[in-house]
Write a structure and sequence with these properties.
Layout: E1 30-41, H1 44-51, H2 60-73, H3 75-78, E2 87-96, E3 100-111, H4 116-138, E4 149-162
Antiparallel strand pairs: 1-3, 1-4, 2-3
């Protein structure tokens, strides 16, 4: 804690230092949307194999899309202080570039708390699934992945609208 912070200003910690979940019970429901993005760098030949649907494990992007959606739905199980929220919509998009794949996940909910963590979980899991699906062709003989990297994960947009 810095000099300017009091224990009572912290939302996830009690005065005694115990961890707590934020109480959102008194907040009104609102429509919420969050969009997150990230990318995975790959060899050009790997991106080509994905484009041509020639990856031995199967359809990389279809599998990654399922993984991203599953991650969105289970965020509350992996991030300790996240609330379980009713997901009303998930959109997962991939864009194949020369030597990378961009992933964007949009999540919508109606409730008392936002959904940016769900969007971020969708992106990171979707990209991890891509890595898992292509690791055999990305891996070099020594076992490393010198050109494979997940990065630039970020929240692009967060919206909150009052219910009509």
């Amino acid at each position: 804690m810095t000099e300017n912070e009091d224990a009572e200003d912290l939302t996830h910690t009690t005065r005694e230092g115990d961890v707590q979940m934020v109480d959102v019970g008194d907040k009104p429901d609102s429509e919420r949307r969050a969009v997150a993005a990230g990318e995975i760098s790959l060899r050009e030949s790997t991106v080509g194999a994905i484009r041509a649907d020639e990856v031995g494990k199967g359809d990389v992007l279809a599998t990654a899309r399922i993984g991203a959606i599953q991650a969105v739905k289970h965020t509350w199980e992996t991030i300790p202080m996240c609330h379980g929220i009713p997901i009303t919509n998930v959109e997962v998009g991939f864009e194949l570039r020369e030597n990378r794949i961009d992933c964007e996940v949009a999540v919508e909910t109606t409730g008392k708390t936002g959904c940016e963590m769900e969007a971020l979980e969708g992106v990171t899991t979707g990209l991890n699934v891509v890595w898992d699906m292509v690791k055999a062709i990305e891996k070099e003989d020594e076992g490393g992945y010198p050109e494979t990297e997940i990065g630039n994960v970020r929240v692009l947009d967060k919206e909150k609208r009052a219910l009509e």
